[in-house]
Design goal:
- The structure holds 2 protein chains of 2 kinds.
- Chain A is of the alpha+beta class.
- Chain A is 29% helix and 32% strand.
- A 4-stranded antiparallel sheet of chain A has the order 2-1-3-4, covered by helices on one side.
- Chain A is globular and about 35 Å long.
- Chain A starts with a strand and ends with a helix.
- Chain B has 2 domains: 116 residues, Elastase, domain 1 (Roll); 160 residues, Neutral Protease, domain 2.
- In chain B, helix 1 runs antiparallel to helix 2 and helix 9 packs antiparallel against helix 10.
- Chains A and B meet through helix 3 of A and strand 4, helix 4, helix 5 and helix 6 of B.
- Chain B: It comes from Paracoccus maritimus.
- Chain B: Its EC number is 3.4.24.-.
Chain lengths: 95, 366
């Protein structure tokens, strides 16, 4: 499974300052691999993306998360950072 | 923070040469000799602060009577409003608000970022209290909650509707987000939210961004005691990484010129409606098209002369309070500011005439 994460928005709104990460989950250590698979389960991400979230606020980032697996092909989700649980954000920072 | 800020915006001439928040950054990030100098000056500031607490001196009163002073973490006798600051350490995690390290009235912590944030929030609170008779972000004494050290290598600062959070940057593109203009910008998003709000999308979103930048510039200029023509009008002058070619994140004086760098690209902000950018990125270009109303405010301040936090700030603040249109366009906002200028200073006043001229110069005739 491949996970690609990019960000947009934020205080600067500068595309060049955005995050771009590509993680080959199969190449990760077993413990981290399981943690990533649990966190980036497409069904859960779909629910997070559908959440209305907190519409107040400003300067927050939006993450585009693309999960590609061998069976189903790519799944793309646009999720505002306040819609993602803190544990997933920490995992994104760690990866 | 510069606690010698006095009602009406007058400053003590000596202690305010280098603002303490800058000294704290220098103490953290300067070379050994410069950092030592900054630490020494900070100690002097602390001593002066204590002396002033023990022996308060009368300040020069401006035309407008102050409601409160909170800049240095201390409110003065007779203040109507008192801030309730709470600074948390995110410990490089995403969970908010994190560990509370300094609450209102607490002694300085051992954490320079926490103390910088505490003082900067006091400065912004003081601006809204003194100049606009506003008690905190909501007008009713809302607690000012900030988290520093938010996440790891996080290139951002935001207002989430209830509190602010600040990353430390990745050290390459951004070296910090602990900058008075950024803190004032985020707090102003709170003021906008509690003033009827501006939907964070397209033109109303760009107005939300612009008004946050306007009051960020006003805060900074008031703290430095700078008249409009003396200011640099840069938002985020402390932010860019050491190798980035630029002076900050946005320039209200010359939108589109804040940076030009191989890594960061070219500042995309327009200064005129002819170059308004239609895009679906960044909530419809809220951080890009804000350059147009930003530049109109700059032009108005320069045409009028004097201090941005006085007449121009009063006009922008009144317009925000009376807007009552969360989906406002640039044209509707410019009309609102002119209406505010007329209410405050009269139909044929120089303020109203020069404001019309400023809007016309950016392609928004009123």
């Amino acid at each position: 499974m491949i996970i690609e994460i990019s960000s947009s928005g934020g205080f600067g709104g500068i595309p060049a300052a955005a995050m771009h990460k590509r993680i080959d989950v199969d190449q990760q250590a077993p413990s981290l691999r399981q943690e990533i698979c649990d966190a980036f389960e497409p069904r859960d991400l779909r629910q997070l993306a559908a959440r209305s979230g907190n519409s107040r606020g400003a300067d927050r980032m939006v993450y585009r998360i693309t999960v590609t697996d061998r069976q189903d092909g790519p799944h793309v989700y646009d999720i505002r950072e306040d819609q993602l649980p803190a544990e997933i954000l920490d995992l994104i920072d760690q990866m | 923070m510069c606690i010698s800020v006095c009602p009406g915006g007058t400053h003590h001439p000596i202690q305010c040469i280098v603002p303490p928040h800058m000294l704290r950054v220098i103490a953290l990030r300067g070379d050994e000799r410069t950092a030592e100098m900054a630490r020494s000056l900070l100690k002097q500031n602390q001593k002066l602060r204590q002396e002033r607490e023990d022996h308060p001196h009368p300040c020069n009163q401006g035309d407008e009577a102050p409601a409160a002073i909170a800049g240095g973490g201390n409110t003065r006798a007779g203040s109507t409003f008192t801030p309730d600051r709470r600074v948390h350490d995110g410990q490089q995690k995403a969970a908010l608000p994190g560990k509370l390290l300094r609450g209102e009235g607490d002694s300085p912590s051992d954490n320079a970022d926490v103390d910088l944030m505490y003082d900067a929030m006091g400065e912004v609170f003081s601006l809204y209290a003194d100049q606009f008779d506003r008690n905190s972000l909501d007008g009713s004494g809302l607690a000012l909650i900030a988290t520093v050290n938010h996440r790891r290598n996080y290139n951002n600062a935001f207002w989430n509707g209830d509190q602010m959070a600040f990353g430390n940057g990745d050290g390459q593109l951004f070296r910090t987000f602990m900058d008075l203009s950024v803190i004032a910008h985020e707090m102003t998003h709170g003021v906008i939210q509690y003033s009827g709000g501006l939907v964070y999308q397209d033109q109303s979103g760009a107005l939300n961004e612009s008004i946050a930048d306007v009051f960020a510039a006003i805060t900074q200029q008031r703290q430095l005691g700078q008249a409009a023509h003396e200011a640099d009008w840069i938002i985020g002058s402390e932010l860019l990484g050491p190798a980035i070619k630029g002076v900050g994140l946005r320039s209200m004086k010359a939108p589109g010129t804040a940076y030009s760098d191989d890594l960061l690209g070219q500042d995309p902000q327009p200064f005129h409606m002819d170059n308004f950018l239609s895009t679906s990125d960044d909530n419809g270009g809220v951080h890009i098209n804000s350059g147009i109303p930003n530049h109109a405010f700059y032009l108005f301040c320069m045409l009028l002369g004097g201090n941005s936090w006085e007449k121009p700030g009063q006009i922008w603040y009144r317009a925000l309070q009376e807007l009552n249109n969360p989906m406002a366009s640039f044209a509707e906002w410019s009309d609102q500011t002119v209406a505010a200028a007329i209410e405050l200073y009269g139909t044929g006043s120089p303020e109203a005439l020069l404001l019309r001229r400023a809007w016309k110069l950016v392609g928004l005739p009123t």
